[in-house]
Amino acid sequence: MKIIEKIEKEILFEKFLKYKPSNFDEMVEVVMWFNEQIKNTLTPTFNLNTPIRDLDLSVRCTNAFANYFLAKNIKMPTLSDILKYKLSEIKKWNMMGDKSIKEIQMFLNEKGLSFTP
After folding, report:
1. CA nearest 103: which of 34, 43, 52?
2. Positive or negative CA dihedral for 9, 15, 17, 23?
3. Which of 52, 55, 87, 94 could form a disulfide with 115 if both were Cys (CB 3.0 to 4.6 A apart)?
4. In whole angstroms, what is the distance from residue 11 CA to residue 27 CA?
5. Residue (of 20, 21, 93, 99) closest to 59 by Cα position
6. pLDDT by residue (tens digit) across 47-72?
7. Is 116 helix (H, G, I), strand (E, B) or coil?
8. DSSP 8-state assignment for residue 52
9. Is the pTM of this model over 0.90?
């Protein structure tokens, strides 16, 4: 979890704990608001249908994925296409060196994702 998200979550939780609802309906409303706020702080800024070219990856890494998927006749590969593969398979791809592997692993870890086991 990114530090900003963690801090935002802690601040929201502190506000939530300090508030004293005067009746049950108000308490339900506050709990629903709190849940919505937490959900908003955890909502990723990407989705699995994001094309690889739109991910924040280096040109080297993007090209390695693009070349592999073009050979498979997938013209616009997405993040979900990457996640279908095992890391051991991706390491064998042409142009996919150690730097690209480290980069994609760091990217996925930041997003809470991983390759197929």
Report:
1. 52
2. negative
3. 87
4. 19
5. 99
6. 888 898 888 899 999 999 988 888 88
7. strand
8. G
9. no
